[in-house]
Write a structure and sequence with these properties.
CATH class: Alpha Beta
Order of helices and strands: EHEHHHHEEHEHEHEHEHH
CATH topology: Rossmann fold
Distance between the termini: 11 Å
Number of helices: 11
Number of domains: 1
Number of strands: 8
């Protein structure tokens, strides 16, 4: 199961990514969680301390490694587009609670036309993750849809767009769905987060097709408190875990 989780900033992508990862790990599955957000905080949501998270260097910032694998010169004029990366996930990931965390980082000079050694390296790693046959790979993407324009995650099984009950979030889902189709990803699903009441849920169900809506996560002060404290929501909110477990079960059933 290979899933990229995306959406606008602050909607709860990292909470969903972390709890899904820990649920799969609790079943004894091999789980690799890739943090592709420049504001990387998936580590905290998985259970790492702030000190441990701050000590991790993103792959995109490992210039010596990028130059070694891509053969890039100082001006980035010539480099390999398919560098060897098969050892990188296991070599550079950090494990906690049964989940391997790989902090990817992003390319600062990104954009739809970006072609550079760092981008080639990240794309090669993401492609390699897809072919880790027996692993669950959960990718916490950067906010917005820039990664779709670059085609970085085009090999994933599906995209899950995390939204809130509002018109702007709905628009983000529709944009992601269109751009994902452009790069060959036809399965784009929705998880609604921070749902407060029946009116919120009715608003969402009127606008999101039933087969596209994986599930609902209700507004939860325990999750917000976990974020403030820098700890994993998995460890403090049984309600959030059970709601996300229901989402996971739907994903699993659809894969059978």
């Amino acid at each position: 199961m290979k899933v990229a989780i995306t959406g606008k900033g602050g909607v709860g992508k990292t909470t969903l990514s972390a709890v899904l990862a820990r649920l799969y790990a609790s079943e004894g599955r091999t789980v690799l969680a890739a943090d592709v957000d420049p504001d990387a905080n998936l580590g905290l949501a998985l259970g790492f301390s702030e000190e441990e998270v701050n000590s991790i260097t993103p792959i995109s910032k490992m210039r010596d490694l990028v130059e070694e694998r891509t053969g890039a010169d100082s001006l980035n004029r010539f480099f390999k587009l398919n560098p060897r990366v098969d050892d990188i996930p296991d070599r550079f990931s950090k494990e906690i609670n049964g989940v391997k965390l790989l902090v990817m980082g992003t390319v600062d000079t990104g954009g739809s036309g970006c072609v550079c050694p760092e981008h080639a390296m990240l794309k090669a790693i993401l492609t390699n993750l897809v072919f880790r046959k027996d692993d669950v790979v959960i990718m916490d993407m950067e906010a917005g849809i820039e990664h779709l324009a670059r085609g970085t995650a085009s090999m994933m099984d599906q995209f899950i767009v995390v939204i809130e009950p509002g018109a702007r979030s709905i628009q983000t889902y529709l944009k992601v769905k269109k751009l994902a189709a452009d790069i060959g990803v036809t399965r784009v699903r929705v998880v609604a987060n921070k749902v407060r009441n029946a009116d919120d849920e009715a608003f969402l169900r009127e606008r999101i097709p039933e087969d596209a809506l994986l599930g609902v996560i209700h507004y939860n002060a325990e999750v917000i408190d976990a974020d403030r404290r820098g700890i994993s929501p998995f460890d403090v909110s049984d309600r959030a875990v059970e709601e996300i477990r229901a989402i996971k079960e739907r994903i699993d059933n659809e894969k059978k």
